[in-house]
Amino acid sequence: MRFDRDIARAIDIDADPAAVWDELQSIERHVDWMDDAVAIDFHSAQRRGVGTRFVCATKVGPFRLSDEMEVTGWTEGVEIAVVHRGLVVGAGTFRLMPIDHGRRCRVTWSETLSFPWWMGGPIGASIGARVLGRIWEGNLRNLQRELRAHR
Fold it and tell me: What SS3 string covers 103-142?
């Protein structure tokens, strides 16, 4: 038995969408702004686009896991979609939307994750989703800082 939870967070970034995409599409650099991502190990020759496979060593508090991921959707400059195939399974997307006539960019990170019963059932899934949502809010702020640093 598994328990699904939808998690979505967004941030408006003071950078043009092309600059945001450049940072986001560099999967190997996600560890620079994702607090929960410890290391990324590619399991495919490619590093971009549909079919890219990698394992993200993830740490949330005292918990560590290997998040097996595969890119399942890639719309240049707009969206990256992935599936998770680890202890926690699911699907997620990063979506970019130009705002303020393309001078700024809204980044939306949304995922549907399925938590196994032994992680606390529906209560554990709810707590896990809340914790991950807070971490992702911080990660998106880190992404914003990373982009400011590159200006």
Answer: CEEEEEEEEEEEEEHHHCHHHHHHHHHHHHHHHHHHHHHH
The residue with tokens 């699911």 is 90
Domains of the chain with bracketed CATH: 2-33+75-149 (3.30.530.20)
Q: Is 100 helix (H, G, I), strand (E, B) or coil?
A: coil
pLDDT of 107: 98
- What is the predicted pLDDT for the residue at 150? 77
Indicate the pLDDT class of residue 2, thresholds 50, 70 and 90. Answer: confident
Q: What are the C-alpha distances in Å from 149 to residues 66, 74, 145?
A: 29, 26, 6
Q: How far apart are CA 69 and CA 57, in angstroms?
A: 11
- Cβ neighbours of residue 28 under 8 Å, at least 6 residues apart? 40, 42, 47
The answer on pLDDT for 74 being more than 70 is yes
